[in-house]
Design brief:
Largest sheet: 9 strands, mixed
Distance between the termini: 90 Å
Structural class: alpha/beta
Number of strands: 13
Strand order of the largest sheet: 1-2-3-4-5-6-7-8-9
CATH architecture of one domain: Alpha-Beta Barrel
Helix content: 25-40%
CATH topology of one domain: TIM Barrel
Shape: globular
Order of helices and strands: HHHHHHEEHEHEHHHEHEHEHEEEEEHHE
Strand content: 5-15%
Amino acid sequence: MVEQTSVVEEPTVADIPEVADIAELDKLSDVVVPEALKEEATQQDLRHRDFPDEEFWREIPAFKGVGYEQFMDHKFQLIRSVTSPDKLTEIVGELATPEFVEDMKAGLRAAPMNVRVSPYLISRIDWQNPYDDPLRIQFLPVASKRLPEHPQLTLDSLHEQHDSPTPGLVHRYPDKVLFLPLDVCPVYCRFCTRSYAIGGDTNQVEKVGYKYSPERWKKAFAYIASRPEIEDVVVSGGDAWNLAPIHLKEILSTLLAIPHIRRIRLATKGPAVMPMKIQSDRKWFRTLVKWVDHGRKLGKEVCLHTHFNSPNEISLITHDAMQELFRHGVKVRNQSVLIRNVNDTPETMRLLVKKLSYMNVQPYYVYQHDMVKGVEELRTSVGNTVELERHVRGATAGFNTPLFVNDVPGGGGKRDVHSYDYYDSTTGVSVYRSPNVDEQKAYLYFDPIDLLPEEGRTRWSDASQHDAIIKEAMKGSGLSDLEPAR
């Protein structure tokens, strides 16, 4: 009896379901697929392509009867935003336990930022486990998680007011300024580096405030026009999402008319917290697109710099909004803040980076968490950030891999997080130089004390050791001749 051998047919492109019926690929239908050198990707590997279309907001009691069109109205999002514990319980009902609400009330009393959270974000919080939810962590403080402030913390740790030639304008880098036209946002992030100015006064902070003022704006524009070295303007605040179309036009038309301005970046959290504005506020959207196009005709770039921190912020609504911007030629880049238990694992950061890239948002920066009041439990260590960057790099193309930076305290600006001259993981002190800002200063960042080993925690608990710790770091860096920025 002759043993029969089965013939294994080699797969062709026609056997690939995703492409078999695409007319433009008919010419490949009988081509044998070359043998793969890598294992085939799993569904888990491709989950960054998933943008579920369910009406997730209907899980929230107050939004159970809210239809798609109503939820997609940015005015509904503004009106129904949570601005107090009472409003939260009114919206989520028994999903928020009384214990959680009391914990949040205590957290708000000690917070430097007021609370404002959009219905979109409220609907994406896991109310079965709010304490560990990455969106709750960012926007709703709870007293039970609070840690003592680091003794080296200051309110305006980046010294923005020190570098302001006129209120609401920061000139730190030679060819770039930061313009702060307003002091309100669609939501308030707990970790805001401008908690000294943004939103209303709190129990903890009397705000500087940058309310809309034509005269203040004119002084900022006059300064920019008078300095020919300035080529780059970041319009932040506050949040460009909250600019009225007429004010958006005023800012962009004025800045684009200044001959030496080449780049304008509109900084906004909006796409992450209220993406439906792109579809529902068409006047704002048309104003943006008009002046992006006008800038392009002048050979100048106008783009959006946004702020996604968690994959959980992203839905099909987000995807569609970002595609709308892409189709109209609006470049969007993302700047994340590294936050403990939000995006500080390789798995989460890789997913965020690839999800952003898939919807044409370029991952640009990941910031070491600034030293700001009331959020010590959100910060991570420089050592952990360096290791995280190692795991993220190489997961996707280089131009879609963010740069991990430390916007160092004292006004030194952004430094590559691993470019420190010295780092002591025991005391948590890292030392940076920023020669283009000030050659005579060294800039120190301090890891959160609760993440230090016992020896480091013990030394920081003794106030008499603080100066010695800093002197040791300066000596170890070889920069003892420089002045530590304060």
